[in-house]
Amino acid sequence: MPSAPQSPWRHLPNAISSLRVVLVLPIGWLLAHRAWSSALMLVAVAGVSDGVDGFLARHFGWQSRIGGMLDAIADKLLLVSCFVILAVQGEVPLWLAWVVCGRDGVIAVGALLWRVLVGRIDPQPSLLSKACTLMQIVYLLVVLLALIRWPVPASELPGWLVAVLCVASGTDYVIRWSRRAWRALHPARVPP
After folding, report:
1. How far apart are the first and last CA of the chain?
2. Could you count the other beta carbons within 10 Å of the beta carbon of residue 15?
3. Which residues contact 89 (CB under 8 A, 6 or more apart)?
4. What is the CA radius of gyration of the chain?
5. CA distance 144 to 123
């Protein structure tokens, strides 16, 4: 059996992440045109693909720097666009879209600052961040199911869970990466 780096399949997780980036446009178009059933199917495909590419990368040792970046970009593009479009249409609370976009904005600015001040960045999503992404996907699926009149229990709990996880994971990112940046920029000093 060939080693992981020599496998012809080693780029499969990156291809799946790229597919998720490509799906952002048709999903956005379907949401904008209120084609809820079709949007639901593509969001479900994107959600499943997010888990599949991560599993393949970890299980077979096919992780790469570009794969980590593609995965993060795909998640942010998909989730932010869905929340913004649905908020503009009045299907999700505007405040929740602001929380989702705010978290991703903080992470994007932090990554840019890291790149400028420290250097190369290797995405390392935390368990909390993964839980946040999963909850956002679940929330979108629940909203879309409700929009196609599928019997889902009416509850604001999923939205509040998304908000709490966004704030918690965003705070976690700021703290963890600030400490790493301090250590990288001041190796002889004690971090704050």
Report:
1. 48
2. 13
3. 31, 32, 34
4. 18
5. 30
pTM comes to: 0.86
H-type helices in the chain, by residue range? 12-32, 36-60, 65-88, 94-117, 127-147, 157-185
User: Residues of the chain with pLDDT > 70: what percent?
Assistant: 93
Helix axes 65-88, 127-147, angle to 10 degrees: 40
Task: Give me 156's structure tokens.
Answer: 């604001």
Taking phi over 0 as left and psi of -120 to 50 as alpha, with beta for the rest, 34 belongs to left
Nearest by Cα to 121 from 133, 132, 109, 131: 109
Residue with tokens 């250097």: 119
Task: Assign 190 a pLDDT band (cuts: 50, 70, 90).
Answer: low
Q: Which residue has the higher pLDDT, 5 or 122?
A: 122
Identify whether the C-beta of residue 38 lies closer than 8 Å to the C-beta of residue 30. yes
Distance from C-alpha of 104 to C-alpha of 64, rounded to nearest angstrom? 22
When pLDDT is cut at 50, 70 and 90, the band that residue 154 belongs to is: low
Quote the longest CA-to-CA distance of the chain.
60
DSSP 119: -
User: pLDDT band for position 186 (50/70/90)?
Assistant: confident
Q: Which two tokens stand for residue 169?
A: 């994971």
Note whether 10 and 62 are within 8 A (CB).
yes
